[in-house]
Predict the 3D structure of the following.
Amino acid sequence: GTWVAHPDLVPVAMNVFDEVLGDKPNQIDKLRDDVEVSAEDLLSMGNTPGKITEGGIRNNISVAIQYIAWWTMGTGAVAINNLMEDAATAEIARAQLFQWIRNKSKIDGGDIFTKDLYQTYCEEELNSLKGDHGFNDALENAASILDDLVMTDEFKDFLTLPAYDQLN
């Protein structure tokens, strides 16, 4: 599958798929017999490559706040940091924040990512997003929604569910 930012790009994307797939509707016949993944593998934080960085945490917070703010104002996809973002991006960001706190994950440099550290970063990111554009109330509401999603003890199914009450 793919995602396009405008309906006029559908034929462009379809041409690329058609070149590879021909008449086939999918690539389900191309299985990877060399890959075996269990449920435990998918949940193993220790097997996840890469490092958790302060910059990555701050980016997750900032993008989630911005997207939720736009979503509550009725926009389903929005350009953030020169990337087209949708609810999936915000879902990934808040899920990582939630999991990193729950798993007492180490930030590159040694600090543990805690609820207190999340709150500090969130307040700083929110303040850096505020400006004279009349968007501050939406940003504050979005940060509050993100806080509820990240600080809770139980992972909520979808970030949009608690955000429905904030739709403008």
Notes: The mean pLDDT is 90.
